[in-house]
Each structure stands twice: as C-alpha cells, then as structure tokens.
Amino acid sequence: MAAPTAKQAPTNGELASPSAARKYKASDLPLPSATRGAIESLAHSFKKEGAYDSIRKQVWDKFEASDYEAQVTKAILEVAEQEIERNPQQLLTLDRRKAAALIDGALERSGVYQKAESVISQLIDVGAIEERIRETRRAEVGEEAAQAEQVRGSKTDEEYAADTEARRAERERLREELRQKELAIEEEKRRIAREERKKEEREREKAELKRQEERDERRRKREQEREERERQRDIEREKRHKEREQRDRERDRDREREPRDRDRDRDRDRDRDRDRDRSRDRDRDRDRRDRDRHRDDRRKEKEAVSAELKEKLSKEEHERLEQEALADLLRESSKTTQKQPELEVDSSLAPPPRKSGPVSAINPIRREHSRVTEGRKLSDAGLKADRGGSVPPEL
C-alpha cells in the first residue's frame, strides 16, 4: 500500500508556513472498509515486527546528533519568555500545569511544533518504511495484487484530479441521463394524465348529454301527458257541456210539454165528462121511456140524485186525475234529471185543500181514513154507473 508522500521540510532556521497543506490520516479519508482494514493490518504488522521501534530510535539518534534539537529548544524558550513578559502575573501565579498549557498554546500558534515536525520528517527514511510495508503486503496478497495496488497508489495529484474529474463527469452524465429519463417519465405521466383527463371529460360530456336527453325525454313525456290530460279534460268538459245542454233542452221540452199535457188532460177530462154526461142523458132518456108509473116523480127524484152525484163524482174524479198526472210528470222528470233541482209546482195546479172535519179524540186516523174510503167508494160507484149505464141506487 502506498503511504502518504511527505512534504519537503523547510531548511534549518526557517519556520513552517501556517498555510501549508494539511496532512490527512488514513482515518480522515473516505476509504472503503476493506482498504481501511488492510491499512490498519499493515500498520499493526509493521509495529509488531519491531520495525517501528527501530526507525524511531534511528530518527531520534539523528535528531540528537544534529543541531536541530538546540534550535527547537531555543525557539521554545524564546516563546516562553515572551509569554511570561507579556503576562507575568497570570503565568507566575497559576498552577504549573495551567501555565504549561498556556505556553503550549502559544508554541502551537507560533509554529515551533510545525518546525520540529518538518525537521523530524526530513530525518525519517520514508522510502525504507514504504519498501518494508510493501514487502509485508506482497507476502500477504501476492506479487500481482501488490503491484496493482502500487500502481493505483502511485498516481500523482494531477492524475488523481483527472481521474476524479472523469468520475465526476461520468456521474454527472449518469445524473443527466437519469434526469432526462425522469423528465421523460414525468412528461409521459403528464401526457397520460392529460389523456385521462380528456377521456374523463369526454365521458362526463357523454354522461351529461345522456342525462340531458333523459331530462328532455322526461320533459316531453310530461308535456305529452299534460297535453293528453288537457285533451281529456277538454273532451270531458265538452261532454259535460253537451250533456248539460241536452238536459237543459230536455228540461225546456219538459217544461214546454207540461202545460200541453195539462191542457190535454183537461181537454180529455172535459171530453170524458161530456161523454159521460151524454151517456147519462141517454140512460135517463131510456129510463124515462121504460118507466110507466110514477115517471114524473121518479124522474124528478132521479134527476135530483143524479145531479148531486154528478157534481160530486165529477169533482172528485177531476181532482184524482190531476193528482195522477202531476205524479207521472214528477216521476218522469226525476228519472231524466236525477241531479237537477226540484221542480216548482205551480200553485194553480195543486188540488184545492179539503175541508177537514173535527178530529175524533178516540180514533182520529180511522175516521179520516173512513172518510177518504167512503169518498173513494162513491167515486168508484159513480164511475161504474157511468160506464155500465146502471141506475144509481135510490136514497
């Protein structure tokens, strides 16, 4: 393994420049763990074999034999005297260890130690140490591997700089390629995202168009249903209007027909009365011809009775026929117009009120009923007499 090359030491009497390049240790360098382990193993083997102690003894003997020791000692004393003269109270009153630490710092700042290190570095035979360590490495890994390591470690600063620049350029190229790939990937992702957004937008537009069509279809259906309902309502309204007009016309016809019916009934009743009177006259004439005795008396009596009966029967029959005609008219009008208002009956058509006799406290209903029954019997008897031509019974 190649050891770090030592810098050229300054000449005797010169102090090392404070701006000299820093010397790095193996522990300060960013080395792989295998390289670091190999270096530590070589250092341990070098010390274990006794070569380290031998070189240290040689260097110290050379240092004592030369005038370097006196120069270093003189420089240390000068710096110490300067510090005591500059701050005598602090250095002379403090503990010796604290005062020694202060003077040691002043020596470090003045460059005395750097000068001593440079002198000792000149006394060390770096080539012999390197050769000894390379022999140990060749014994461990072999001649070829050790030679390859020596070639890699014997590079100059310019070669290291060029190699470092080449590696940096390669790393930069790789980073640029990676960046371009990342940019291409990002661009592709953006393109895919744009395509996805366009696709989603088209799908949303299609969905919106579909929803709009569905809304329009529902609106058309509602319009059609509304128009159909309006048409049905118009039809029903027209139908009700026609039915109302039909009912009004029928009501008007019924109203117009009622007086005619009443007139026909009255004419028919008058004709019937005239026929009945003529028939009775014929019967009376026939009876007058057939009777031989008491003709005049019987005729007078018969005429008196028949006149009274005629007056009674004609009055009751007239009232009954009017009531039946009125009931028929009311029945027909209630069948044709069930929901029409009740017909107003003319007061002139109503039968005259009957004069009711005193009501019996024991049985009022029976007396009234018997009176009505007797009236009906008399009217029926009169009708039979008129139709059959029979002579009414003598009173």
From TrEMBL:
It comes from the Eukaryota. Coiled coil: none annotated. Pfam families: COMPASS-Shg1. Residues 1-22, 137-175, 189-395 are annotated as: Disordered. Residues 41-142 form the BOD1/SHG1 domain. Residues 152-175, 189-334, 365-387 have a biased composition (Basic and acidic residues). This is BOD1/SHG1 domain-containing protein. It comes from Fusarium falciforme.
